Amino acid sequence: MPSYYYKARDLSGRAHEGIEVAASEDEVLRILENSKLVPVLIEHRAPAGAPAAGEEIGARMLGSLLKFQERVSTGSVALFARQLATMIGVGLPLVRSLRSIARDHYDKKLRVMLEKVADDVQKGESLSSAMAKHPGPSTRCS
Q1: In the chain, beta strands by DSSP E
Q2: At what angle do helices 56-69 and 74-89 cross, to 10 degrees?
Q3: Closest alpha carbon to 43 in 22, 69, 68
Q4: What is the spatial distance between Cα 121 and Cα 62, in angstroms, rounded to a whole number?
Q5: Do residues 73 and 24 both lie within one domain?
Q6: Among positive and negative, which fits the CA dihedral 29, 128, 121, 113?
Q7: Do 25 and 70 share a domain, yes or no?
Q8: CA 60 to CA 41: how far, in whole Å?
Q9: Full-model pTM
Q10: pLDDT tens, 55-93?
């Protein structure tokens, strides 16, 4: 059975990593969800270190989140990530979760971006590609 390396965060934001032996990436996602962990990266560990197809999906999502973070404060991004993980974890649809967070979030820049991201996701884009549209220079106050 194949093994998968993962990086994840718990609901408090602490990093976790490990290797799971599972039949598929979906099974690893279920295992992490049952452990109340939010996956950041899942890589298939092919025999003899050969790269697996599709292993860059998690890395692209993390890269999009980091670019997204450049425009708003770190605290706002952390709160957003926790809220989104909680809402998705209880089964709310992604677009509804994004709109709910946007409506209630204290950070105006994040609210505006989340509305745009929700619109793009509703039109069929992936979350990572919708978030990647919002990189750019940092607008944070130091």
Answers
A1: 3-10, 15-21, 37-45
A2: 130
A3: 22
A4: 17
A5: no
A6: positive
A7: no
A8: 9
A9: 0.48
A10: 455 566 666 665 555 566 777 777 888 888 888 888 888
